[in-house]
Amino acid sequence: MKSFVSFRHVLVAAAIAGGTGLVSSCKDYLELDPTALNTTEYTFSTVAGATAAIIGAYDPLSGDYGYGQRISLYFPLDSDELIGSAGAPADPRRQIARYAALSNNDDITRCWNQLYQGVERTNICIQQIPQMDLYTNGAAADTAALHRLHGEALTLRAQYYFELVRNWGDVPAQFTPSVAGQDFNLPNADRYATLSKLIDDLLTAEKLLPWRSKAGAANERITKGAAKALRARIALYRGGYSLKGSTMQRPSDYRDYYTIARQECAQLMANRTEHTLNASFQEVFRSINELRTESANEIIFQVGMATATSGSGSKLGYYNGPRLNASPIYGSSQGAVTIAPPYFYAFDSTDVRRDVTITTYSIPSSNFQTGVPLAGTSAVTDGKFRRDWHNPAVPGTVNYLDYNWPVVRFADVLLMYAEAENELNGPSQSAQDALLEVRTRGFGGNRARATASLTQQGFSLSSKDQFFRALANERYVEFGGEGIRKYDLLRWNLLETKLTEVKANIEKMAKGEAPYDNVPLYVYYRTPSAIGNIQWTRSFYRPSPTPNTAPSGTTRVNWRQAINAAYVANTKPANTTYVITPGAAVETSIGSGLAAEYVPGKGKELLPIPQSTLLSDQALNQNFGY
Amino acid sequence: MKKHLLLLWLLLSLTLLASAQQAQQRRIQGVVRSTEKDETLPGVTVVVVGTTNGASTDGDGKFSITLPATATDVTLRFSYIGFLGKDVKVGSSENVNVTLSPDSKTLDDVVVIGYQAVQRRDVTGSVSSVSAQQIKDIPVNSAAEALTGRLAGVQLTSAEGTPGNLNVQVRVRGGGSVTQDNSPLYVVDGIQIENALSVIAPQDIASVDVLKDASATAIYGARGANGVVIITTKKGIEGKTVVSYNGFAGFRRISKTLGVLKPDDYLNYQLERSKIVGNSSGGLPTFKSLFGSTNFTSDTLLRARNAPFIDWQDQVFGRDAFQQTHNVSVSGGVKGTTYSLSLTRNNEDGIQRGSDYVRNLVNFRFDTKASEKLRIGMNVRYNDQGTNGAGTSTSGSNTTSRLRNTVQYQPLSVPKANGSVVDPSAFDPEFFETSTLVSPVVAIDNEYRNEHRRTINIGANAAFNILKNLTFRSTAGFDITDINLSTFNGLYSPTIRQASGGYANKPFATITTTTQNTINNSNVFDYSTKVGLHSFGVLLGEEIYEQINKQQFIQTNFLPDDITAERALANINQGVLPVGQTSQPVLPQTSIPQNYHLLSGFGRLTYSYDDKYLFTGTFRADGSSKFPAGNKVGFFPGASVAWRISKEGFFQDVEKVTDLKLRLSYGEAGNNRINDFLYAQLFQAGSAPYSINHTLVLGSSATTLPNPNLKWESTTSRNVGLDLALFGNRVQFTADAYYNTTHDLLINRPIPPFLGYTSQLQNIGSTTNRGVELQLTGTIIQTADFTWSATANTAFNRGRIESLGAGLNEIPGITSGWAGTALSQDYVAQVGQPVGQMYGYVTDGYLTADDFSGYVPSTTPGGLGTWTPKVDRTFVNDLGLIGENAYRPGLIKLKDLNGDGKIDASDQTVIGNANPKATGGLNQQFSYKGFDASVFLNFVLGNDVYNANKIEFTSNTSNTNFNNVLDIMSKRYRTSEADGSPITTLERLQEVNKDANIWTPTRTYFLHSWAVEDGSFLRINNVTLGYTVPKALTQRAKVNTLRFYVTLNNLYTFTKYTGYDPEVNTRRSSPLTPGVDYAAYPRSRAFLFGLNLSL
């Protein structure tokens, strides 16, 4: 027996360890600290914790369902500038582009969810940060940091809600964090009230935020300029048209908001050391494509992207931009966003913005730029985000180039100023100067040419209405591919007009009618034998020769020829028949072209509220027409 | 808590006092034999009744016992496992020869019902048991496999045929939870152990008792709702040391392969398909490039058609996989002390190339009677196992499935159009481009996966008899598991070649390290007394349970192209960022540790009157750290009564009935297998990254909308049971009927996303399971030379979702996900229906010549024409769904259920149910002289299997052009003549297709009723034939037993199922998608030869 004594000791010791040693008291025993997770109190007890929460609040801006692809490249299309991926509206992205979205559209649902995720994260920060002891009683550096974070949260929330309102209209709005036991059945909130609240918030935010120059090294975080520019933008929307029920309406107090916009823009324009126009239009986008900053800080607020993942990266330049096909140097891209053919001719031939905004080439496995047709698939695409501009070049098929998405640029501030000033005071000198400043940059700094071309294109700055026409055109050519045009047209109540106009222009191009009678049927480029910019051998502005065979050393591509009867038919709702000229074959639309299913008065100016939200919120009503 | 400490010290000091001297004055000796075969019995316990004086028989059955000379009127009690005990009055004689007869009644078995063991005849709840005797003939390496089909009401479904058989789903009476884990609780020798079946060798199991109804499981409270599996390991027997060896070796061979198209029809089909696709990608140009020509009658294609068939399934699964198991055990004991040491080694090659399983297991158990009042014991188990091979399936979608390469890779190797010849066992980038397939041999050789799992279980127990009827027992144990999972995907792994994967076609490696630690301690007082006809028992106890699981994960992408798995894993920091990549996409991470404490108090009260009326009441209070203050404690009561009708006076005359007992029970148990800290709003650092200056900054965010009202998911169960024993226990029958209600289900209820979260975990809704279980055991023939005994069981369970909370009628959007996003919802869980209903379209044949009026030739030379639909036919438009542009003969048709003329999501309906109508097993054991045999059958009846393999293997989508298809597609509807030219008349269509019985392969993935198959099967699971060498021969070599046997495992399966095997469950991450057969590791048949030897 004795030999077992030591064993018994071991045993008893083990029993004690198990039974009592680890337990001090029953109550404490059941209280565990989640060491891998932080409570709200802990998170908001330090500046670092609050900063991490703000970074978390920025996060929903990026990735596939933020501005990395869906909100930036699906939602703003189709308009009279660009066409989302050609094809019938069977899949989610084409449903959106063809104005035939269904309420179970997965892309719409996920973006909606992600935007509200952003709202919730900012709501938590907006509630918690001002309550922090350091916010009022901390050292100067701490209070300054926390005030900035507070301002960032308010601005971010405004951006999230603004994106929701402009796409969905009267969306549920809550400005405090969600809590268990709250009312889960929120009704549609009046958009005017929501936007007014955002405009008020941004006024608070801009007081909390530092100017860019006081915010350390340049980066994508929000500064005072961003809050001001966004406030101006939201004010213009608040004062613009939007779809109420089946009709486009504008609130009667709209001038108040134009005043706010004008004021904010004026203040930004008075601080040119913070943000101003970059002398080079191309440099603004080159900087994005080369993942660096640009010296003028023209981009006031941009969404940061990185890591080539669906959560934090962006497909800008992969999904859109010129189509690259297995180029050993530049890799592959989808080239899914093509232009509305008349957009090419909306640019003056000397406007440097055209060849930045539009690309006329693709890059196959030879690495050489080769010409593409004006329309169809594998056609002329948008160009502000291009894979072949990536520095250094990225071969392979990686889908994420992580280009930032510019939310608002100084050019927009100038044009918003011009617009608000014209609306309030007519085409005053300051309004004209602001517009012409943007346009002059588009003509390489040649103000004379910028002014002259305006007249040549049939615009005038002389009256309020004429000025507005010129302004609308200036925004058209300045912001192509930046997700701005569709929403501009909506707030101006010009979507119907301009979609009708662009479709009519497409038809004119197909028929070779004025003003497109000089547009060539075919264009020719020098057959490339080296890496370099594509060399077109004839003007895009004079008819192609007869015979039209390609001269030696050049290659022919379809230009106006690409716009055939089927292309025109497909811009009409599916099953619409179209005959281009009497006696020609009857073409039946498959609804695959520009805004094919758009019919005014059907409520398609707004997106449908996702089915999943309606199912779980009994108080919420679907938008008209869905 | 301090009380325990005190008691333990008390215990210790008392033991030291225990010693006594005995005088040797009288000796009784004798031999114990078996009545059956006239064998001597070693290890029989012999005790002098009324004392603790005892001995054991030696190897020749001899015993000797000494008594004080004063002892008169001595009675010796002989007891031996598997034999009926016997009391023998000795009187004054000195020689006693005794015969014991084998125990055919399990009624006298001991059943462990949680913190104590009781006689089976006293059990009032519902308990299924299996003893070592029943599984001794099953030479398998997996304990779960050994138990399959043997326990009524316990369904064990092995997910697939991987070596080691590690993924077995265990469900006791269906499982009540819809969204949470339905795994039972495992208790091994009194200690709660996670996934015990995977760390115990079948050879070490003495008995398994499964507590099924809540009156039995309520004693385990919050962990008992899914049943409790109590495993007792073998212990030594006092007496002679027994050294035994059990070994078997043999090989496994795939039990079924799938037929695919041979080169000639493969080429014909692909050419036909390419013509339809035309000149776009995946069409004619690709065909020409791959196979040299698109001219049907060209010499090139004629040669290609005659190219040798490459049977990839044979190359991948064709080997005879060797396996061997060796188990050596030494057990024995001296008076009051027993020990058992068992060493097991398993070596098992998988039938799949490059897969194997190795396990080393040590099991040591030691029990001693330290004094008259104190018994202590300990056991230590060490399990070290390694599994190699990436297998066939993943929890991801088809882009990372591996089986598809094996079934669908091109079945031939011919020169390409450019003259190059790709070695069939080398990577072919062009074929990958069009098919997303890699030669399966290349894929396997480029993927490395090794899981190394080490488990240490240490347990100790002490029992102290404070008073004659009062015992204190303390049990403590540790369960420590370390899992190291290493994976490597080399240059030609299909995984790294997904464009969206972010791998940039470069190898990557991952290492996942998981540590699971649990500590469990229980202390109970057990009191029993008998006053006249009244027997009372009281059990009072306290228990703590702690679990801490930690996991670390590292992944490095962009490893050098030519690196090997070993080199990559040995130094994982060898990634070189490709151009444009600013950082490694996956940062090292530690997962949120699982960490929870459970503190419980419990009690059991038993009362019986005259062994006629029995009552058991249990109660448990569990406090859990998983819930917020106020909801921490849950109460779980249970009660059961039994009425032994056979003891009633009016029943005494029925002589054939040995025992008849009626049981009734009611109880409540909880399920706490949910995540920790769900009740509080918590920020997860790193969960919300945002990039600043193109560098990721890790932000933090609140990940869920907390629910401070969370509480246990609880199951109320009601059971009525009947135990019947006939003919002196020769036939035993048990029947149980139950009705379980699981309420306060934890469901991630969809909430309006404007809240910032799309769901919140809430206690809503309820489910029910009702069913009947029958078990029949009998010795059919028993003669001196021949016995035939059989055990049969069957169970019927019906589950139903009763409620999902107000306003929610269905858990939305359940998808099994095998096809990624290409296939949306394919399961539904609706109120009023069971979980596991397959949801899809109804197959409606295919378009034939009868649906068309004529053929319009193509305007372009050589192009395919179009077929004009008959004007009187209104086609249901399914073109969008099936991925076609125009109607043509041979296209699949689906039923337009809502009659709107088109096929869309609203035409889906319930087309299958994964729940079986009945499950069961039949075990028969025979012995004739030295020969023994057993046949074990198990069956599952009336369930459906979602044969996703079949959908994938009969489709060529735009991403899977040129994939081979199953040979059932040789009977597809064709639009080409035998010479490859297009059919242009309806008459020829009819003529050519007179034997056609299936559509042409589809171009998209969608679930339709054709792919939902009856999964019923009857499996001849095991046939064993053994021969025991007569003792007369072996004893000369000092060998006690020597038996040889041969076994066939998984001999044959009777089923109508067309896939590899109907017992399958591959989408296991959610309980909502059972019964999917997608890329399962094919099952094999084992041929084994074994040897049992004991000295």
Can you put this structure into words, describing what you see?
The complex is a heterodimer of chains A (626) and B (1095). Chain A has 626 residues and is mostly helical. Helices cover 42% and strands 7% of the residues of chain A. In chain A, strands 2-6 form a two-stranded antiparallel ribbon. A two-stranded antiparallel ribbon of chain A has the order 3-4. Chain A has a two-stranded antiparallel ribbon with strand order 5-11. Chain A is globular. By secondary structure, chain B is mainly beta. Chain B is built from 16 helices and 54 strands. In chain B, helix 5 (263-277) crosses helix 7 (299-305). The longest helix of chain B is centred in the first third of the chain and has 16 residues, at 2-17. The two termini of chain B are 48 Å apart.
Which sequence of strands runs across the widest sheet of chain A?
A: 2-6
Helix content of chain B: 10-25%
Approximately how much beta-strand content do the residues of chain B carry?
35-45%
Please report the total strand number of chain B as a whole number.
Answer: 54
The major beta sheet of chain A can be summarized as:
2 strands, antiparallel
* Portion of residues within helices of chain A: 40-55%
The unreliable regions of chain A are 1-8, 10-24
